[in-house]
Structure formats: C-alpha cells, structure tokens
Write a structure and sequence with these properties.
Blueprint lengths: L2 H19 L7 E10 L6 H8 L2 H13 L3 E7 L6 H11 L10 E4 L36 E5 L9 E2 L25 H6 L8 E7 L2 E7 L13 H17 L20 E7 L14 H5 L18 H10 L19 E5 L3 E9 L21 E10 L1
Parallel strand pairs: 1-2, 7-8
Antiparallel strand pairs: 1-11, 2-4, 3-4, 5-6, 6-7, 8-9, 10-11
Length: 387
C-alpha cells in the first residue's frame, strides 16, 4: 500500500474521530500565522530536505506543537502541486515527538513567485527570473504559503486572486522613474498582477460558524530603487485586502467571481504583510489604513491586545535599535511588526501573543534565527460566536 493511500486512510479515520468527539467548537479558537522560512533556492529541495530529515523543519514543528493553533497560515513554504512536501511535514514532523498535533484539513496555493512575466519589471534590459516573475522567485511557487486547519475548509468556496491585474485596481500606485516618466509602459501595465504570491479567502466551517481566513504575503517594500516599485506594490497589495474586507466591488477572483467579502461575514486576516505601522520602508505607511479599518477588531490593531513578546524586547535592547514603535510588538529579527492576525470586529479576542521567548527560556533556542526562522509566530485566541 503506497504512502498516499495510507495517508488518505489515516485522514479518513481521523475525521471519524473528530466528528464523533468534537460536536461543538471549544472556544476560544487559536488563529496563527508563521513565516517559517521553509523556502529553498531550488525547486524540489524542500521536499528532499523534509524526506531526509531537516532540523529547521523540526524546530518549526516544535513551535507549532507548543503553541497549538487551530488554524495556521504557514508562509514561505515552497509550493508543491502534489502536496507531498506538506503531507510529509505534517506526518513526519508535526505528528512526531511528545506533543504531536494533527490538521485534518489543509490546502496549498499556487503562487505568482517564479512565474515569468512578459515584462522587464526591473528595467535591466532583459526578461528573466527571479526579478521579472509576476512575483520575485527563482522557480514557480518559491515562498508560497499553505493553510492548516482542525476544522473543515469549504474548498468549493475558496477564492484566490493570483491572476488579478494591478491595473484593475482603482487608482493604481504605479511607480515613477527618477526622471519623472512612468516606470512601466502601457503594455507592461496590462500584463502585471497585483499579488506577488496570491491573495486568498478560505471559508472554514466551525460547526455552523463560517469564518473566512483571508491570507496574503505582500512583497517587501525594498530591493528596488528611487521609483519604489516594490514599496508601491506592497501598498496596493495591502489596500486590496482592506478593500476586500470592506466589500468593494472591483475585484474578480480566479474563477470569475466578482466583488469583495459579503457584508456581515466573520473573518481573520492573516499573513506576513511586510509593513510596520511606525518603522521600516513602507510606502505611505501601507499597513495603517488596513489597521484602521472599522471592519477589524481594534484591540489587536492599536489597542490593549496588540500581540507582544518578552523576546522581542530583549532582542531589540541587544541590537540597540531606535524605534518609533513599541519594541515588544516586533515579529522578526529586523526589528519590525510585519506579521499579523487580525480578527473582524464582530469577534471577541481573548488574548494574542508573539511567540518569541527570552534567551534563557527553556524553549528560547527555538526562536534563534539559525534554528527556525527570521520571523516569529503570531497568534490570537478568538471567540467565534458573535460579541
């Protein structure tokens, strides 16, 4: 019996147990996002590493086992259409050790990274990867993301926006060359896509409570020039999310469905947004309009339940950083708050944290950059019943 048949049988039996034992949702529900840096420089290398045994992946798995999210967005996990890499990570890593954790429901998502465009995006006189992909990447799906869930995903109603064109947004923030001319010509503007990976809406059925996990990973607002093409794209990728949760009607998904999120829907926005509200290189404080949206629970945006950690405080003190924002809010080693879990305003947030331990903590070594990732997991515990 081959591996895929065994895994299918295991998942079936697990679903029987879950259905029998979990007739009601036990609140709160923990939603988490984690840029795990499980990307590799060559296609297929992640799968090979996971098969052989990967210490980094084991440390990432240990963090997940300790924090135990119910819904997890795992970013920078290279895309594998067969889902074999993800299945190995779940069975060999997440389900091993003293505290195994299981996710019966999961999805991988195709990504614009490493998909060669027809445009000379960086204006170097040639069209070639990685810089001229619809998203920066050496191969198709590098830096992609996945979702893992303990509750059923309504796959038929999942919406993706991988192919949505940048020019289809109202008032695109097109980059301008230093001499004042448009960075992209008219042909390129018709070709370019807004999402550097993809943007997705994943409905999750929590025993009759439908919660939309809205996930994105906008491009970093750096690695460009005075034209700020990446900064402006990051701004519009985040603006797309704001417009989506506020129900704007201009977006068209990859199946042809039109419009944003339905009015009154409950949701959690998750992902590495590559934008800090106070520090960093964001164009026009890109994340702030999203954080100020009335559709979001303001306790986790600028309020009393903004996720923090003692590890970030300790690390930033060591680095002697001069921040405008609160050092404790940072979510990566670059001294920025860029990873977010943002529930909708109708959901009650019980608690939220950045998983970043102090050096002397018993699990402190897990959050050393070389051991797991340069980012930290962010989670929020949410009551999904209405306020």
């Amino acid at each position: 019996m081959n591996r895929r048949i065994l895994l299918s049988l295991y998942v079936f039996l697990l679903l029987v147990v879950v259905t029998a034992c979990n007739k009601e949702v036990k609140e709160p529900i923990r939603f988490a996002t984690f840029n795990a840096a499980l990307n590799r420089p060559e296609q297929g290398m992640l799968l090979k590493d996971l098969k052989m045994g990967c210490r980094q992946a084991q440390n990432v798995a240990s963090i997940i086992q300790i924090t135990r999210p119910d819904v997890l967005c795992l970013q920078e996990f290279d895309y594998d259409a067969s889902e074999e890499a993800l299945e190995i990570f779940m069975t060999k890593y997440l389900q091993s050790g003293e505290d195994p954790i299981t996710y019966p429901y999961y999805m991988t998502f195709a990504s614009n990274t490493g998909v060669l465009s027809t445009s000379d995006i960086n204006n170097d006189g040639k069209v070639a990867l990685p810089a001229d992909g619809y998203g920066f990447g050496a191969f198709e799906g590098q830096y992609a993301f996945v979702i893992l869930s303990k509750y059923p995903i309504d796959k038929e109603k999942v919406r993706t926006f991988q192919n949505f064109k940048w020019e289809q947004m109202p008032n695109p923030s097109w980059p301008v060359a230093p001499e004042g001319t448009q960075w992209f010509d008219d042909k390129e503007k018709k070709d370019l896509r807004i999402s550097s990976k993809t943007q997705v809406d994943v409905p999750i059925d929590m025993n009759g409570h439908m919660i939309h996990a809205i996930i994105a990973h906008p491009t970093p607002p750096v690695f460009d020039g005075k034209e700020d093409r990446n900064g402006r794209r990051n701004y519009d990728e985040i603006r797309f999310l704001k417009d989506y949760i506020e129900g704007c009607d201009y977006m068209i998904d990859d199946k042809g469905g039109k419009g944003g999120l339905e009015k009154g829907a409950s949701f959690v926005v998750m992902g590495d947004m590559n934008a800090d509200p106070y520090d960093g290189d964001s164009y026009r404080s890109a994340i702030v309009p999203l954080l100020k949206s009335p559709r979001l629970n303001n306790e986790v945006t600028f309020g009393a339940k903004v996720p923090k950690s003692l590890g970030a405080l300790e690390f930033n003190k060591k680095m002697k950083r001069n921040h405008k924002g609160d050092d404790a809010m940072d979510t990566n080693v670059f001294g920025l708050r860029i990873d977010y879990v943002l529930p909708s305003s109708d959901l009650l947030v019980i608690d939220s944290k950045v998983y970043w331990n102090e050096k002397n903590h018993k699990d402190g070594a897990l959050t050393f950059k070389k051991n797991s990732s340069d980012h930290r997991m962010v989670w929020a515990d949410v009551n999904i019943t209405k306020k």
